[in-house]
Amino acid sequence: MDTMTLWHLTGWGFAALAFAALLVGFSKTAVSGANTVSLAIFAAVLPARASTGVLLPVLIAGDLLAVLTYRRHAHWPTLWRLFPAVAAGVVAGTLFLVWADDGVVRTSIGAILLLMAGVTVWRRRTAEAGDEPDAVTTRAGRAKARSYGVLGGFTTMVANAGGPVMSLYLLSAGFRKLGFLGTSAFFFLIVNVSKVPFSAGLGLIDGRSLLLDAALVVFVVPGALLGKWAVHRINQRLFEQLVIGATVVGACSCCCARGCRIPGRVGPVAVCTLGAMSMSHILILGGTTEARRLAAELAVRDGVRVTTSLAGRVARPGAVDGDVRIGGFGGAEGLGAWLREHRVDALVDATHPFAASITANAAHAAAATGTPAVVLRRPGWRPGPGDRWHEAASLAEAATLLPGLGQRVLLTTGRLGLAAFAHLDGLHFVVRSVEPPEPPMPPDMEVLLARGPFTEADETALLRERRIDVIVTKDSGGEATAAKLTAARTLALPIVIVRRPPLPDGVTAVPDVTGALEWLARI
Question: How far is it, in rounded angstroms, from Cα 442 to Cα 333?
Answer without folding.
Answer: 36
